[in-house]
Design a protein that fits this description.
Layout (H helix, E strand, L loop, with lengths): L3 E7 L2 H11 L5 E4 L9 E6 L2 H14 L4 E5 L4 H9 L2 E6 L5 H12 L7 H19 L11 H11 L4 H8 L3 H15 L4 H10 L4
Parallel strand pairs: 1-2, 1-3, 3-4, 4-5
């Protein structure tokens, strides 16, 4: 089992203590001190609302680039897009943050994946539809700066499918899917799968 080193961050010490109690001693999870953040694989951030931690997330994204799993009471569609730009690759509702779900989210984030609740995926898709209707269509834009197969892969990532599932759906090998994703992130200067989805959504590609 691969060790995942986790830094805990929150707006208040009670939330820090609660997350530490959930994660400490869990197999394959090591909670490290904030001053060791440069050695962490994932940051887990607990908060009631995004505005409380937004400045810290933005600074950390610029300084460290470590993927973030956000445990939050609620988040709006627009806040989600902003959060993804700050390296948030997973959002877990606080009320649903069981030990099992939290650890699964941290492992997924550490391996380069993302975790979103179905409602949040729905919010992103609604945002896409509005963007197409209100911005792209009136200006005659088609968003085709990704190839058709790149669009297919990014769309399936946005729908929550992993590499193996995408390969099966598109009749590609796992290696081909990884190469397509690497081409997208490398060419556009993106940091992760979640960032690729956010980019595609913001530009109306999917």
């Amino acid at each position: 089992m691969q060790l995942v080193r986790v830094v805990i961050q929150a707006a208040d010490p009670v939330t820090v203590a609660g997350l530490a109690a959930l994660l400490s001693g869990q197999p394959g999870i090591e909670v490290v001190r904030p001053e060791q953040r440069q050695n962490a694989d994932v940051v887990v951030v607990g908060t009631d609302r995004l505005t409380t931690v937004f400045s810290g997330l933005r600074r950390a994204a610029a300084d460290f680039g470590t993927p973030v799993v956000l445990v939050i009471d609620d988040i709006t569609e627009q806040e989600l897009l902003v959060a993804i730009e700050c390296r948030v690759v997973g959002v877990i509702p606080r009320g649903a943050a069981t030990v099992e779900r939290l650890i699964q989210g941290l492992r997924t984030a550490a391996s380069g994946g993302g975790v979103l609740a179905p409602r949040l995926v729905g919010d992103l898709l609604k945002h896409v539809e509005r963007l197409r209707r209100e911005v792209l269509a009136p200006n005659g834009l088609d968003g085709m700066w990704l190839t058709p197969r790149e669009v297919d892969v990014v769309r399936l990532i946005a729908d929550g499918f992993d590499t193996a599932e995408i390969a099966e759906k598109l009749n590609y090998s796992d290696r081909t899917v990884k190469k397509i994703l690497y081409a997208v992130t490398h060419r556009l200067g993106l940091r992760s799968r979640a960032h690729a989805v956010a980019y595609a959504l913001r530009h109306g590609i999917i």
